[in-house]
Amino acid sequence: MSTISDRELWACAAHVLKTQGANAPRHVAERIGALALAGDSDGVATWKAIARRMATLTETEAPATRQ
């Protein structure tokens, strides 16, 4: 994986969630697919790391939004 810090990965995850909203999972999947087709394994690994952080953020936020 490239030299993106853990803090930057968290910031990217938060940014994707904020800017893409409900489309965030699809956006990440499209990025991973495009990078995989291009043979960019570092890019794929980076976006998978972002996806894991997005999942953690949405799991943490979900109970507060449920009623």
| Residue share in β-strands | under 5%
Helix content: over 70%
Main structural class: mainly alpha
H/E element sequence: HHH
Radius of gyration over C-alpha positions, nearest whole angstrom: 13 Å
Calculate the terminal CA-CA distance, rounded to whole Å.
Answer: 39 Å
How many strand segments? 0
Q: How does the overall form come out from the CA principal axes?
A: globular
Q: Mind summarizing the main beta sheet? A: none
**How confident is the prediction overall: mean pLDDT?**
91
Instruction: Provide the low-confidence segments as ranges.
Output: none
Helix run count = 3
Question: What is this structure, in a nutshell?
Answer:
The protein is built from three helices and no strands. By secondary structure, it is mainly alpha-helical.
Q: Could you outline the blueprint of secondary structure elements for this entry?
A:
Blueprint: H1 6-20, H2 24-37, H3 41-65
Folded structure, characterized:
It is a single chain. With 67 residues, this protein is an all-alpha fold. It is 81% helix and 0% strand. It has 3 helices and no strands. Helix 1 (6-20) packs across helix 3 (41-65) and helix 2 (24-37) packs antiparallel against helix 3. The longest helix is centred in the C-terminal third of the chain and has 25 residues, at 41-65. The radius of gyration is 13 Å and the shape is globular. The mean pLDDT is 91.
